[in-house]
Amino acid sequence: MDDEQKKVPVFTELMRNFAMIFTLTILVMTFVGILIARYAPDEQGFSALFSLAGAGMPYNVILQLAGLAGILAGFTTLLFSGHYSGNIRFLWRAFLLMLATLIITGVFSILFNWLPASDPMYWVGLIISSIICVSAAIGLTLLFLKIQGRKYNKLLARYKTRHRRA
Questions:
Q1: 97, pLDDT greater than 50
Q2: Are 48 and 111 in contact (CB under 8 A)?
Q3: What is the distance between the alpha carbons of residues 132 and 138, in angstroms, rounded to a whole number?
Q4: Going by C-beta distance under 8 Å and a sequence separation of 6 or more, which residues neighbour residue 26?
Q5: Distance between CA 148 and CA 1 in Å, rounded?
């Protein structure tokens, strides 16, 4: 499997990560914008992200999210590709990615006025939602790895029994 990963060029892996992160970010922001427009229309002006909630996302916000996705894709490629990661445990990689996500999102939030810098409740919400999302992603990844491990162990057991008889 490591040989397969090393055959994929770093640029291709970076672009895959960017596409995945950017797509998920746009989908989540669209869903949140719809919820805000429907259930809390008075809150539309609290952030530059949702200034046009219900009418669309401003172009500059889409480019800002693309920049965020690009930086996070770089960290993801650095931490999870077979090219650079070395022998760091998966949970440490996930923790480092979560920390980088919080720091980078915090910097972007301040730079582009995504969240009011003076209101701590918005920042607590950002931290909690980031922890929930990263924890869900880690949990799903670990579940997938466990299922794959069981499948490969069964295949290995069948292979061993078949070749013992021969």
A1: yes
A2: no
A3: 10
A4: 57, 62, 65
A5: 13
